[in-house]
Write a structure and sequence with these properties.
The protein has eight helices and 36 strands. It is an alpha/beta fold. The strands form five sheets. The protein has a 23-stranded parallel beta sheet that branches. A seven-stranded mixed beta sheet has the order 5-4-1-6-10-7-11, with helices on both faces. A two-stranded antiparallel ribbon has the order 2-3. Strand 2 and strand 3 form a beta hairpin. The longest helix is centred in the middle third of the chain and has 21 residues. The structure holds uridine-diphosphate-N-acetylglucosamine (UD1) and calcium ion (CA). Calcium ion binds next to loops.
Amino acid sequence: MTHSIVILAAGEGKRMRSARPKVLADLAGRPLLAHVIDTARTLGPEHIVIVVHGQGGQLIRADFPDSDLAWAEQAERLGTADAVHAALAELPKEGSVLVLYGDVPLLQADTLAPLLDSADRGELAVLTARLDDPFGYGRIVRDEAGAVQKIVEQRDANEAERRIDEVNTGVMAAPVDRLAQWIPRIENDNAQGEYYLTDILALAVADGVKVRTVEAGDAASTAGVNNRAQLADAERELRRRRAASLMEAGVTLVDPGRIDVRGHLECGHDVHIEPNCIFEGRVVLGSGVRVDAGVVIRESWVGDGAHLRAYSVIEHARIGAEAVVGPYARLRPGTELGEASHVGNFVELKNSRLGHGSKANHLAYLGDAEIGDHVNVGAGVITCNYDGANKHKTVIGDDAFIGSDCPLVAPVTIGEGATIGAGSTVTADVPPGKLVLARSRQTTIEGWERPRKTHSDPDKQ
Ligand code: UD1
Ligand code: CA
């Protein structure tokens, strides 16, 4: 049986009060729609059609250039039924179709598969949920025998209907040919003057087609995002899910309510994570890694036993086993730290390699540098890698010792085992094993006297 999925994403999203289309709102680091597309793909359909509208639609399409996605343009936003109407032209004439909403991002494939099965048997299937607070959702209306009659929207519901806590999640599946017959019969004589997709329920009942409701076991996953508060709720739900699966995998989260994983976090065993850390993109933490409070880490790899101390910001870096980073370190793209190396507070690295056991413990900038093993980089060492036009490289050999407060003017090479005296401005290559000083000698002026005041200060009278 051919399976198609339609994702409705043409709505305006007024309640978000945003200049951008709602389905591009950011949820856990990705647009809402990306979450829905992921779920759709998991179901392995032959076709995915996304319905969009106007300029917002152009923005959405530009964000999703993938070739497995087809697009349908809804000329005017006349309601969810009209949106599905726009998609019909892009759908095959046979098989089953599942309708998803671009603003319902937390649903998972195993909840949806039974709906397609049901449509394959010629039925109309609707995913429902029981909510403590059903306000705003369409309600499932049943007769005394419990058979489904229709769906009534919040704004069209009478008082008794508003008390119903069984709601329409928006997700439906039906045989394509049936859907194509029902859609043109839907009218817009309701409170919003819209063509409601939900009206196909009453049409199915009238046509004697079996309507099956599938109740989502996990109501939280059916939540729609219509405003910023619901967006934050969805974010919290994703955070809860990710925290639960990390803990399940053996990671210690000191507070599972205070970790943000906006991408893919992979952990070895006995990883310990303190509160308020943010993980973006793909991050790998080896076994025994400890991450202290407030660390922000993006697209990075961290070796076993490394310790990321508080408030360090790390992106596109590789950190060797047993390395210690921070507190307050900044590792920019292209940083590579050797095993057991130390990068301390207010040290910034960019496109640089720090060898095994090497240390830059305080207040330094190391950019475009190749630093060997067991090097000591003193406080206030700065690679002057930029001459205003080009970037140049600094090379420091193994076992070198760079005293405090030394600008190293690149391109420059410091030989193995060399020692640079504190306060030296290094402008030329340094031979291995030697002591180099590049500063003026300290002198003491004999007989010098500090100037004295000649007049009394009028301000102080
Ligand atoms: C809809 C359902 C409601 C359900 C709720 C679940 C209808 C009439 N109502 O209400 O029963 O409880 O979702 O979250 O279907 N869209 C278009 N074109 C349009 C209008 C909407 O593509 O002309 C898209 C929106 O982008 C959105 C989805 O359809 O992704 C739902 O539209 P929205 O206006 O949010 O409907 P709700 O009022 O939430
Ligand atoms: Ca909605």
